[in-house]
UniProtKB/TrEMBL annotation:
The keyword ATP-binding does not apply. Its cofactor is Mg(2+). Residues 9-189 form the UmuC domain. It is found in: Cytoplasm. CDD domains: PolY_Pol_IV_kappa (cd03586). It is an enzyme of class 2 (transferase). Monomer. Its EC number is 2.7.7.7. Its main location: cytoplasm. One of its GO terms (molecular function) is damaged DNA binding. Keywords: Cytoplasm, DNA damage, DNA repair, DNA replication, DNA-binding, DNA-directed DNA polymerase, Magnesium, Metal-binding, Mutator protein, Nucleotidyltransferase, Transferase. This is DNA polymerase IV.
Length: 367
């Protein structure tokens, strides 16, 4: 790739965002182990402060497990409106440096600063200035990764957390990947990493030795992606204003639902919340999905794709109820219900990447 064509990508990732906001706003929480979520029996940790992480507490952990690991853990209920407001402050700072901003969630985003709107000497200097301005404006720290593509920038932002930054220049990209365990690759989950390990693939160097045909045979459509990233190659551009592809809501209940009436009431509540988003955004989808998680953690889904978008409150309620009724009477207690609308208008689906979502779409169980 010619030098003039090399992109300059920054991945900015806020440090323990939800928990840091809570510690900022309540001095009594500073320096203490904090979990954002609900401490009820069926609660889930949405975010953990670095003090809590020192005990092994992490996001998506059941609250009961988190409390066993850290009995002094303080649970704070989430305040998503506050997190969204802070996120808007941060994105306003990004906009001073580039128009090419791709949010991944409330607390992280890719920025393409190749054009160097501010005339700073390097992308690293740009990242440092952005982080300093975020700290000044919000009182929160951010980490950053700087590289020539999105995959490497994302990996780089984890190298100096919290409150640091790391650069992977083009001449170091392949070597960085070769030495990295595949389980550390963004997008390679535990199941895929375990499968790679069974095939003798433990590092980026091991992955690079595999042929494209072998990776396609073993990993299907993901094969070409693994082939490319093992060579530190990622041609995806930073795509601003990505459309949302779905809207969903789910809840873990304090007790297992068994009676049809309470199950239907739970689905109705989830559908109401989804409709509220659709109406405010004026985005309506054709596919409605009801998710069920039973007491033994087995899951089931029921979906229906309609000829036209569901554009009325009563219509969404009716389809959601019809879908859940197809599973009744329930063979066992239900601990979680969710409703999602997807398959939005075609104009909203013309980009390949996923949709912007909040930091964590988890069942934050309420007592």
């Amino acid at each position: 790739m010619a030098e003039t064509a090399v992109r300059k990508i920054i991945h900015v990732d806020m440090d323990a965002f939800y928990a840091s906001v809570e510690q900022r706003d309540d001095p009594a929480l500073r320096g203490r182990p904090v979990a954002v979520g609900y401490g009820a029996k069926r609660g889930v940790v949405a975010a953990a402060s670095y003090e809590a992480r020192a005990f092994g507490v992490h996001s998506a952990m059941p609250s009961t497990t988190a409390l066993r690991k850290c009995p002094a853990l303080i649970f704070v209920p989430p305040r998503f409106e506050v997190y969204r407001a802070v996120s808007r402050q941060i994105r306003a700072i990004f906009a001073d440096y580039t128009e090419l901003i791709e949010p991944l969630s409330l607390d992280e985003a890719y920025l393409d600063v190749t054009a160097n709107r501010r005339g700073l000497p390097t992308a690293s200097a740009t990242a440092a200035e952005i982080r300093a301005r975020i700290l000044e404006a919000t009182g929160l720290t951010a980490s950053a990764g700087i590289s020539y593509n999105k995959f490497l920038a994302k990996l780089a932002s984890d190298q100096r957390k919290p409150n640091g930054q790391f650069v992977i220049p083009p001449e170091h990209g392949p070597g960085f990947i070769e030495a990295l365990p595949v389980k550390k690759f963004h997008g390679v989950g535990p199941v895929t990493a375990e499968k790679m390990n069974r095939l003798g693939i433990f590092t980026g160097a091991d992955l690079r030795r595999q042929s494209l045909s072998f990776l396609q045979e073993k990993f299907g459509k993901s094969g070409p992606w693994y082939y490319a990233i093992s060579r530190a190659e990622d041609g995806r551009p930073v795509v601003p204003n990505r459309p949302r592809k779905s809207s969903g809501s789910e809840t873990t209940f304090a007790h297992d639902l068994v009676e049809p009436a309470e199950i239907e009431a739970g689905v109705r509540q989830m559908a109401e919340e989804v409709w509220d988003w659709c109406e405010k955004a004026q985005d309506f989808g054709r596919t409605v999905t009801v998710k069920i998680k039973y007491a033994d953690f087995q899951q089931a889904t029921r979906s229906r794709t309609l000829a036209a978008p569901v554009a009325s409150h009563d219509g969404l309620i009716a389809v959601s109820l019809e879908l859940v009724r197809s599973t009744l009477p329930t063979p066992k207690g239900i601990r979680l219900l969710g409703v999602t609308v997807s398959n939005f208008a075609a104009s909203n689906l013309d980009r390949a990447d996923g949709a912007e979502t909040d930091q964590l779409d988890l069942d934050l169980g309420r007592a």
